[in-house]
Write a structure and sequence with these properties.
By secondary structure, the chain is of the alpha+beta class. The chain has one domain. About 20% of the residues lie in helices and about 40% in strands. The protein has 1 helix and 5 strands. Strands 1-5-4 form a 3-stranded antiparallel beta sheet, covered by helices on one side. It has a two-stranded antiparallel sheet with strand order 2-3. The longest helix has 12 residues. The protein is elongated, with a radius of gyration of 14 Å. The termini are close together.
Length: about 70
């Protein structure tokens, strides 16, 4: 079985300028769309900046080659 891979950088928005709360709905929508067309999530990385955290997620998806 052969696989095709896709690496996607997803931006994380905060819910307000002074808030540390994250708005994950846009990321969830993107991931659901990729799943709908056959991509399966296999890994996620949350790079962290020492001073102010992270505003992105790197996700790896795979699907069978057709």
């Amino acid at each position: 079985m052969q696989w095709e891979y896709k690496i996607v950088t997803l931006k994380i928005a905060t819910k307000g300028f002074f808030s540390s709360s994250k708005d994950v709905q846009p990321i969830e929508a993107q991931m659901n769309e990729l799943g709908r067309v056959g991509w399966e999530l296999v890994n996620m990385d949350f790079p962290n900046h020492q001073s102010f955290g992270s505003n992105q997620v790197t996700a790896v998806f795979k699907k069978r080659k057709s």
